[in-house]
Amino acid sequence: MQVYQRIDELTYEGVAILQMNERSISREWEQLLRRHIIKEGQVMQWDEEVLKSHLETMMKCLKSQLFTDEKEDTEEGVDGKALLNEVKLTWREKGISIDKHEMTFVCHLLENATHKAIHKPDGSGITFRNHQAVHHFFTVLSQHLMPYPLDEINLNGYLHYLFSIPEFSSKFVVHACKENEIFQVKDVVEGNGDSMDPEWLNMLQSIRTESIELLKKTVLRLRGREGDASAKHVLITLEIGNELLLFYVPQKNASRTKSFLKLAFHMYEDIRETVSHAEHQINWSSLVSLFYEWVMRARRLEDAFEHIASGYVRYLPFERCALFLYLPKEKKGVGLTGYNLNVSEIKNISEQFSSPSVIQEFLKKIRTYRPIFIDDASEALPEYYANKFKLNSLVVSPIYSLSKKEFIGAVFLDQGEGQKFTVNDELMNVLVKMGHHVGEMLMQYQESQYDNLQKTITSRLSPREIEVMNLVKNGKSINEISVALHLSQYTVRDYISSSIKKVNGRNRTHAVAIAMQQGFI
Predict the structure, then answer these.
(1) Does 138 share its domain with 11?
(2) How far is CA 370 from the centre of its chain?
(3) Can you give the residue ranges of the HTH luxR-type domain (predicted)?
(4) How many domains does the chain have?
(5) Same domain, 304 and 167
(6) Is residue 478 part of a domain?
(7) CATH number of the domain within which 361 lies
(8) Of 26, 85, 143, 348, which has the highest C-beta tally within 10 A?
């Protein structure tokens, strides 16, 4: 499962919204250049004319990639990441020197103008997700265009860097890639600005072979045709994932070059890991920010629970989510809400943890505060729940407040009815942090709200009590209810009495009215 799949989808949505509103956005962007950007009294470190020049250049870079005829020719639309990379390349070709603060400000100006352009006077057609998608697009754009020194490090760039080191004795490097077990030459990199003979390069790129040794022999044979003393040279092989590098070096320097390459590419992997970590941090920051914005739109605690459940699906690679609260005094877990599930069925779930059971053993596992992955839900949960909700693979992620050291509950996540899937360490680590963030979010609500919610949950009627009270509501007598539910009249009376007590009613009529008001029946 791709951890940041939903974040990538949001980037694409942002691109799509901009493309659908091309005319109004272009007009609003052009208006920016006619206004005073730096208002009177504002303390800014940039000259307005220079700032406008940078803003205009950024507009041109974006328009060249966003607003093109080609976008209409593809049914699948534009790859958001690919488009951002193209914008970055176009921007850097301009050779403009700009610091990160000015870059952030330029993107902020364009984002505000975009929101203004797509906003309709009556507010119709624009959802909160639309605004989030546009905001996310410009946030990622700003991050992509930041002048980070490491983001220029790619394999070809690193090879060119190696040619600048005196100890590197390779004359050229053949860069091949492996696809479906077949190696094919992708490029040949030479130092000192040399350019490879196009005819020789075409011959190399026509080679397709499963054997590295055969590829090496073919390269040496083709090189020998040019009169080069290929017998005095060797090809040193280095594999990096699906990439294959063949270094053409003098035979006398082979041993020394091997040691040099081992050290150089160990450093390369460290650099790439640093870059990858930085990218993950950007994605994680975006994920938390978007999730937090969504949950904080809730005005009541009950609404916050609904936003949490939907947020796990909106921003993480899951299709369904059920949210449960743990009541420590009652030693009970109760269903709060769900997303892409029958919410009423989730709310009817109430499980006691005091007596030995499958559920109690399950609680012990999730109270380690680490998510658990269940390959087959029928082996870990009561068969009734596995069948009712058509569960297969499942992730259960605890919600925990670090500040209060309190276990609050858990979310149950899957890919849909009967779907089997796998997870990786990155996703599980993200879920740990998400559980902590959600826990702290809930603690921001006043404790009185939380207490009131627990009282409301404690007063919930059991499924059997709901059946009985529904029949009472329909005017059935105790005898009629007894026959309909195959219960003794004494048992029916007990259910009615317990229901009246739970909802704090004065009598059965009052209890029915309260139960209807609270949505129990």
Answers:
(1) yes
(2) 19
(3) 454-519
(4) 4
(5) no
(6) yes
(7) 3.30.450.40
(8) 143
Tens-place pLDDT, residues 49-94: 888 999 999 999 999 999 876 554 444 556 777 888 888 888 888 8
- CA-based nearest residue to 450, from 399, 489, 376, 484: 399
CB burial class (10 A; 0-12, 13-18, 19+) of residue 125?
exposed
Q: Does 242 share its domain with 165?
A: yes
Phi and psi, residue 176, nearest 5°:
-115, 160
Confidence of residue 396 (pLDDT cuts 50, 70, 90): very high
> Which among 327, 349, 516, 298 has a CA at the least distance from the CA of 407?
327
Per the structure, the complete domain to which residue 93 belongs is given by: 5-147
Mean pLDDT lowest for which of 21-30, 389-398, 477-486?
477-486
| CA distance readout (Å), 222 to 193, 213, 321 | 22, 14, 60
339, 377, 428 from 373: Cα distances, Å: 19, 9, 9
Q: Look at residue 282 and tell me if it is in a domain.
A: no
Distance CA 283, CA 7 (A): 8
3-state SS class at 120:
coil
Does a structural domain hold residue 278?
Answer: no
Q: Which residue has the higher pLDDT, 274 or 505?
A: 505
The residue from 130, 147, 164 where one domain ends is 147
Its pTM stands at 0.68
Amino acid occupying residue 118: I
What does the DSSP assignment read for 232-282? GEEEEEEEETTEEEEEEEEGGGHHHHHHHHHHHHHHHHHHHHHHHHHHHHH
Domain final position from 90, 113, 147: 147
Rounded Cα distance between 450 and 17, Å, is 39
Dist. CA 3–CA 65, nearest whole Å: 27
309 lies in the same domain as 432: yes
Residues 307 and 205 in one domain: no
For position 477, which CATH number holds? 1.10.10.10
3-state secondary structure of 327: strand
Cα 247 from Cα 221, distance rounded (Å) = 15
Beta-bridge partner residues of 397 = 411
